[in-house]
Design a protein that fits this description.
The protein is of the alpha/beta class. It starts with 13 loop residues before the first helix and ends with a strand. Helix 2 crosses helix 3. It has helices spanning about 15-25, 30-40, 40-55, 75-80, 90-100, 140-150, 170-175, 180-190; strands at about 60-65, 85-90, 105-110, 120-125, 150-160, 195-200, 205, 215-225. It is globular and about 65 Å long. The protein has an 8-stranded mixed sheet with strand order 3-2-1-4-5-8-6-7. It has one domain (about 60-225): Rossmann fold.
Length: about 230
């Protein structure tokens, strides 16, 4: 006897059941799952950062993400660009990302050691990574990213501000070894890009307000120098 198929009370939502049949139950990744458990609202903030990057890079053909972790939020950018390559130096996170999305283009790679396919990517972005890079390695970090870009490439950097650290949790502070002021961040990025535009961010809102009251910075860097 054929089992009766379940339907939702409103037919337009039956596609949710079809999606589950075709793709299975979707789960969060290692890092995003922990965020959902510890502080669900922070996941909203993270997704908002990726939405900003997705809108700025919309229509780009080849895009690189540096430090994708479990790549849960990367899907937002992947919907807006033609090809998205996601890298992380931690094999465990790349393995988890591949488990969540076997069709994604993932690569275990440490950007401090070398560029990724030099002069290939029109756009790149890196969220919540710079603050984990020691000052001794920050120049090679940015240099190798810029070398991965085409001559007219665009880089988006998202990072907590130095001002935010007075309110950061102990666990967060432990890994944040390189937070910067607005002036420090702009000066650093201008060493490698012709144009740098920095926006402030509080929670999920990006704005041009007073930088010392910003919790987070979003920097858009255009046209990398080719003499670095």
């Amino acid at each position: 006897m054929k089992k009766n198929k379940k339907n939702t009370q409103e037919p337009q939502y039956d596609r949710c059941l079809s999606h589950r049949e075709n793709y299975g139950i979707q789960t969060l990744g290692l890092m995003s799952g922990q965020t959902w458990i510890d502080d669900p609202k922070r996941l909203v903030f993270v997704l908002s950062r990726y939405k900003f990057a997705a809108k700025m890079l919309s229509g780009y053909k080849n895009v690189l993400e540096i430090g994708c972790a479990d790549a849960f939020a990367s899907k937002i950018v992947a919907k807006e660009v033609t090809n998205l390559k996601m890298i992380d130096f931690d094999p465990l996170f790349i393995e988890d990302a591949r488990t969540q999305d076997p069709n994604g283009d993932y690569l275990v790679h440490d950007i401090i050691k070398s560029p990724v396919c030099p002069n290939t990517f029109q756009g790149a972005y890196s969220m919540d990574v710079l603050e984990h890079i020691s000052k001794e390695n920050e120049d090679i970090f940015l240099s190798n990213i810029s070398k991965s870009l085409t001559a007219d490439g665009t880089l988006i950097i998202g990072t907590p501000t130095l001002y935010s650290q007075a309110y950061a949790s102990p666990i967060s502070k432990e890994g944040h070894v390189n937070c910067k002021t607005h002036e420090e961040l702009k000066s650093f990025l201008q060493k490698y890009f012709h144009q740098v535009f920095i926006f402030s961010m509080n929670d999920e809102v990006i704005h041009t307000g007073f930088s010392k009251m910003a919790h987070y910075f979003m920097a858009i860097c255009c046209n990398p120098f080719r003499d670095n």
